[in-house]
Amino acid sequence: MSPRVASHKWLFWWLGIITLLSVQRPVFSPNLWWHLSRGREVASGTFSPARSLLSLETASEADWAGGVPFYLLWSIGGIHALAAVPLLAALGLLGFVSRQRSGMSLAKLPWLLLPPLWWTLRDGLQPTPELFDLLGLLVLWCVLEASLTQSSRLLLTFLIFVGWASLGPQPIWGLLLIVVRVNFPQANSVSKSNSRKLPATATTSLDWLWLRLLGAALLGGMFTPRGPLGWRDSVMMLAPSAFGDLTPLAPPDLLASVSFCLLWCLWVTSNVRSARTHHDESTPLPLYILNWSIPLLGAWLSPANIPVCGLWMLLEFLHTANTVAEQKMPLRVPAFKIVAPVVATLLLGIVALDASGRGPTCNRRLGWGIAQELDLRLLDARLFSIPEETAIAWAPDGRSVGVVTWLDGNVRIADHPQRAFLGGRQQQHAALIRDLLGAHRARYRLDDGSWGGWVHQLAAWNVDMLVLPVEKQDLCRSLQSTPWTPADLDSPTIPFVSGEDLRFASVVLESLQQQDFVDTGPWQPTADIYAGQGWRIDVVELLGGGPDPGPAIRQSQLFRSQAIPMAALRALRPMRKLTDHPSLKAEFETCTTDLAYQEWLTSGQSSELRYRVLNVLRPNGHAVEPFLSSVSIEDSDAEAWDRFLEQYLHGQLASAISSLPLHTPQQHYAAALLWIELGDSNQALASLERVLTGEVSRPLQIAARHWKQQIQPLEQP
After folding, report:
1. What are the residues whose beta carbons fall under 8 Å from the beta carbon of 287, sequence distance 6 or more?
2. How many CB atoms are closer than 10 A to CB 483?
3. Average of per-residue pLDDT across 298-327
4. Helix 172-181, helix 150-167: angle, nearest 10
5. Which residues of 57-84 are buried (b: 16+ CB within 10 A; e: fewer)?
6. What is the CA radius of gyration of the chain?
7. Domain at 580-714: CATH code
């Protein structure tokens, strides 16, 4: 085997492993159920699925068929068929890349940019219409690069845009590709042979060619129920910040944007070095600059553009690398032949770290199936099947909207963030969120003369239910002072019903009872409640990397948003014994801080237990909390406290209790709190009685009585 063939073989396997580790995750697109619902509506015979699903929608959609292929996959193979989409798409793209790799090896620096480029693409490989944006851009690039007659090129371009506009939300990227690539004379010589050139007629009339291609693309993109307005929608999706403030609905992902900018700088540096060696004088420099600037501009306009921008960079990378290979450019630094494998190994290690869920940008782990936050089996579907009535729900995010529409009960959803944006309704939704956060219940006059106040707006939309994601902690907490009550304690998508609505009276009562049970009752969660139950396989856990802490963290966040921090701490206990993930430690610290603050509100002073725990978790920053400044610490039994904290912080609560000598009231109180966390009400009450029978400070006495009153109604017989 020649060294060149061996290099190609190792490159292929290296890219294959990188692809698997980078892309293979449980399906996590928040709009999965929304697009499946759209596909189901189209399969039932409608050409305007959003209008059928949303009570506020009046317009048609351009990408009306975007959910149909994935709905068909769901109908055939369920969640596992959908889980295969990202992997199959990535393998297909890998096969395309491998066919373009002629004359290349790992010793050529640009190929080391492929792992971060794969990282930018993975969000776009989910089973949602955004995948068709990537597919459309890839197919169009192949058509523009192929040696075809003008008539064939025009026909194929027209057909591509007919399909692209009906399936994907942003065919505008295809227009940008036509503008840039057709004006590159070498754009049609990126083949494995230098003999593949544009036909003579195309070479002599290049300006007419790209104008006719633009015309064919524009015409093809109008063959949708939206007509010419589909292009307007595509432009709005490309640059959403130019048409409205979307921060209340979708906060920007600054980390992803900054990471992409760093990658773009490396990519441009590679392109500049290549352009200096084989620059075509007939290609104006501004065209190069435009080609290189489009990905950065797209990512700056919206983080949602990053996958398409990543594919644009990948295609330009392949174009440049093939051109350099055809010209047989020698390596300028022979020593890099030794350095390149080292760098490739380092990149492989970084990708493996990311796949383990401990990467700097994402906690998603290598696995199969559907992400826990999308598992709608956790939600009680009976809430959305009101007998003989129809209700309307409002949600601020695509995941919650999709869950409600897919359950297909008697509850109809008001709007979807993307449809509200395209329909000019996003400001109303943003104002509603501000009113809910600001407790603006009563009507008040706005600057434009309209009325504000969340009661007025929800009544205008006939909303009977709110559905919020657990990630919107502030919004969930703001509802604590309103009649809205959470109706489910298990799902990351939380339905809220009004206590003033008699239809939900029994639901509200049951929810309040469940809150008391998980907060101070004999609730003893196990790791099994966070398992995938057939819908999710955690490969990292199977390989001995410990369970995924994400589901437990979301459960804890849900309880904290409902002002039951002890339940939040209990939800973390099964995972604390099994893994020490940084995000789990951060959530544990937050729960402990909330409990210390709750003690301070109840009795005027936080307990010694909470103070000591926070002192270990953040030894240099615990004093900044005003409710911790007045805690008095006893110097006796310091070693016993150290042994106790070591056991407690590792989730070994029973061992921690045994390590306490129980000489002081604070130690008895600490034991009582751990018994509550373990769900043993009888032991907790016994420890609290020991606190109250001795001579204790007034704050500790109040705190002990508070917990005793909370536990006694739920005490086990």
Report:
1. 180, 183, 184
2. 14
3. 81
4. 150
5. bebbbbbbbbbbbbbebbeeeebeebbb
6. 30
7. 1.25.40
Which residue intervals of the chain bear CATH 1.25.40? Answer: 580-714
Report the phi/psi class of residue 148: left, alpha or beta, with left for phi > 0 and alpha for psi in -120 to 50. beta
CA 518 from centroid of its chain's CA atoms: 28
Per-residue pLDDT tens digits for 358-413 = 876 677 899 999 999 999 999 988 888 777 678 899 999 999 999 999 998 888 99
* Both structure tokens of 245: 């403030």
**Tokens standing for 183?**
């004006």
Distance CA 427, CA 403 (A): 23
Longest dimension (CA), the chain: 101
Whole-angstrom CA distances from 710 to 513, 519, 529, 666 are: 12, 9, 25, 19
C-alpha to C-alpha distance for 517 and 55, rounded to whole angstroms: 37
Question: What residues have CB less than 8 Å from 621, skipping those under 6 apart?
Answer: none
Strand partners, 393: 413, 465
Q: Which residue's entry shows tokens 């005793």?
A: 708
Q: How far apart are CA 520 and CA 677, in angstroms?
A: 8
Matching residue, tokens 């009872």:
513
pLDDT tens for 693-712 read: 878 889 899 999 999 998 87
Question: Helix, strand or coil for residue 272?
Answer: helix
Asked whether the CA dihedral 113, 119, 125, 129 is positive or negative, the reply is negative
Backbone angles phi, psi at 461, to 5 degrees: -95, 0
As a whole number of angstroms, the distance between CA 461 and CA 189 comes to 57
